[in-house]
Design brief:
Strand content: 15-25%
Distance between the termini: 59 Å
Order of helices and strands: HHHEEHEHEHEEEHEHEEEH
Mean pLDDT: 87
Largest sheet: 7 strands, mixed
CATH class of the largest domain: Alpha Beta
CATH topology of the largest domain: D-Maltodextrin-Binding Protein, domain 2
Shape: rod-shaped
Structural class: alpha/beta
CATH superfamily of the largest domain: Periplasmic binding protein-like II
Number of domains: 3
């Protein structure tokens, strides 16, 4: 049974006039009549009485079948709409993971807002996950998109797009004498204790500490690495260390922490969006498109 047969029958049932029904369907009356006959033959029952001198009329079977035909056509239209929307990435499910520092960049929250925009019915789940675990989860399909700090290399099946390049600033105790500076000369950091996230969490932090120390002409003193930037800022607020952090973390108002730019060295860090190469899921492609849109308008 073909949908066009159902549509033809419904229009004839509404018009009770083959010529007018044929005009609505842009068909020849003979073609329309043939479709209705094909439907009746398929069902093995007459649906429309065709009188030579009277208007067509629905049989009792036709009246019962009309309601079901309308429901079937409506459901087919809904199915078609769902398929088209899913193909445009407006429906479906995606799992996003992020490192803690990515939450303060604004890119992640903007992308989530775009995924929840009117007319979009994406189901998006988010979870915090360290960078190595994200890359492993992407490769095996446990997550769909990752927000993480730049890495020098990625698994063969994973690619990454730079979402945001931001300045690195110094987080220091608010009561420290150095907090009086508007910008911190790196040579003044000679006697400070540096804390950084673990290498596997935020690649490049230790390299940046070494660059600052080299520019300042000293060997850095480093505290044991911590899990993430929030843990580093907690130590800073306690007066135990200083930390080099992405500028977006200035949004984190931890008591006792001040943020200052570096006066004589320019450091940056990159936030990237990682996903599988050749991703086939329309929903995931839709999320990727939205995170790129969010990145295009991101500010720190």
């Amino acid at each position: 049974m073909e949908l066009r047969w159902l549509e033809s029958f419904v229009i004839v049932a509404e018009e009770l006039h083959f010529a007018r029904a044929a005009d609505r369907l842009h068909l020849a009356p003979s073609a329309l009549s043939a479709q209705v006959r094909a439907l009746e033959s398929h069902l093995g029952v007459r649906l429309i009485d065709r009188g030579r001198r009277t208007r067509p009329a629905l049989t009792s079977a036709g009246r019962l079948f009309l309601e079901e035909a309308r429901l079937t056509l409506a459901q087919a239209a809904r199915a078609e709409a769902v398929g088209r929307r899913a193909g445009r990435g407006e429906l479906g499910h995606a799992l996003i993971a992020y490192v803690a520092s990515a939450a303060f960049s604004g890119v992640l929250t903007d992308a989530l807002t775009r995924c929840a925009a009117p007319g979009t019915e994406l189901t998006v789940q988010v979870r915090e996950l360290e960078t190595p675990a994200q890359l492993e989860a992407l490769a095996c399909g446990d997550i769909d998109v990752g927000f993480l700090r730049w890495r020098p290399e990625y698994p063969p099946e994973v690619t990454a797009t730079c979402l945001l390049t931001e300045e690195v600033v110094l987080a220091l105790p608010a009561t420290a004498p150095l907090a009086a500076y508007e910008a911190i000369p790196v040579a003044k950091l000679r006697d400070e204790n540096f804390v950084a996230p673990h290498f596997d969490e935020e690649y490049g932090c230790r390299d940046q500490i070494l660059e600052v120390a080299d520019r300042g002409g000293f060997s850095p003193r480093c505290a044991p690495p911590v899990r993430d930037f929030i843990a580093a800022l907690t130590l800073v607020g306690g007066g135990l260390a200083v930390a080099l952090v992405p500028a977006s973390l200035r949004r984190v108002q931890i008591p006792g922490v001040a943020y200052r730019p570096l006066a004589d060295v320019a450091l940056t860090t990159r936030l990237v969006g990682a996903y599988r190469k050749g991703e086939t899921s329309p929903a995931v492609r839709g999320v990727i498109r939205r995170l790129r849109e969010a990145a295009a308008t991101a500010t720190v």
